[in-house]
């Protein structure tokens, strides 16, 4: 094996592993944050609902640069969240992995909330009322009736927010920069390789992402299809 | 006798519910009224599913009140067994005898099926058993038979008689079908526009002819009776009641007391004892009261020994026969419905 291929092998695995970690942590956090939010959106008749719904959906339509720009200010050492983080940990949130996790959570939030909200909306109110009259508290009924009936929504939210975070570029570039092992995720690494005209490495990384993206989306739709035809 | 206090007030849009009543803490109490009169809302208030002003501020799961909805509302992700166990696992204090209830509703064969694979009638049986298994102090039923066709309804009705005989639990049963109520219930509340307009023992309330809710095809009396003879040749059962005998088609097991319903439209009145007639049931009765139902129709309450019957006749016939309160007549009864 030549030095060059060794190097390109390492430079694929590092960023890929970082991306996978980021996507997994983000997806899990978004289930925890997204589930109560989606539940509220699916059951509430509050006059604030349309506004909250719009805010949650905004990351889909905004350019990642806009999101990244304001996240950079918010997470920066002088920003509201960033200064608090500096006080707490002694290090800055920007250009760090922790900062990327926060940014990814904002960026991928709609991809977790939408599938969950759709699933929760199809849980019949009467099933919940039946559970309450059978002695289940609201929390108990949520976990024993609403969640099991919304399993597809949870799978969808997990897969979509994972996949979407994996493909994140603009926000990472703005907030995280390009620090190997810390913020150099796969999409940034590909950009780097193209910049330096190293097309072979760019192909390798890109093909891995394409195959991977197809595989998890195909798996999700296959599960949906199977459970639908049952 | 022990009583249950039901006191609820609720304002919802243009609708106002205001109920303050006590019902017996045993047997099945029917709530009858036209759709939109607030029957379902009343049940939801009692269960704690509506935010009504009442003394009971507890959330639904702490009230110990079971509810059976119009649709079975089984948990689609659980088996029949897990559905039934859902309330049972969460019951506080004394636990219900699960096996007894499973036997009572013939559910043994269904236990391992998924909730979604059941027919409408089976699902509703499971829903009733599920509500019973949490050992509630009161069960509410919101038109549990209305989503079923007549055949399925007839399949499930006998289970209500079993419920009656074997489970000593007060039930509030909402329906807009007076025949169903006459068959199942012991007590009756009549509801109109968010208020209770009449309450009492089933027979007493059904004997009232002054309530618009109990006019037209809803008018009719119920009589406590006992099957005493079965005529195999003509497939007729004869019942004994305070005023004599009545017969109805079909075989009914002799002995145990039952209830007969006679619709007011199925009774005609004669001055003299009719001789050549196809009607089997003819009773001597005394006119107890007369109320006008419309310009054309009157309801006539008849007293036959201890029991009441109601006849629905035209005003013209009333005038032509010159019928007055206190006079004796013969009532021809065309059909009798039996609670089995």
Give a verbal description of the structure.
The complex is a heterodimer of chains A (230) and B (340). Chain A has 230 residues and is mainly α. Chain A is 80% helix and 0% strand. Chain A has one domain (7-229): Orthogonal Bundle (MetI-like fold), CATH 1.10.3720. Chain A is built from 11 helices and no strands. Residues 1-6 of chain A have low confidence and may be disordered. Chain B has 2 domains: 3-206, Rossmann fold; 220-338, RNA polymerase II/Efflux pump adaptor protein, barrel-sandwich hybrid domain (OB fold (Dihydrolipoamide Acetyltransferase, E2P), Beta Barrel). In chain B, helix 4 (120-133) runs parallel beside helix 5 (150-166). The longest helix of chain B has 17 residues, at 150-166. The model of chain B has no long low-confidence stretch (mean pLDDT 91). The A-B interface holds A 124, 126-127, 129-138, 140, 144-145, 148-149 and B 47-49, 59-61, 63-67, 69, 71, 73-78, 86-87, 90-92, 127, 130-131, 134.
Question: Which percent band covers the strand fraction of chain B?
Answer: 35-45%
Q: What is the first-to-last residue Cα distance of chain B?
A: 26 Å
In helices, the fraction of residues of chain A equals over 70%
Please describe the biggest sheet of chain B, giving its number of strands, its sense, and whether it closes into a barrel. Answer: 6 strands, mixed
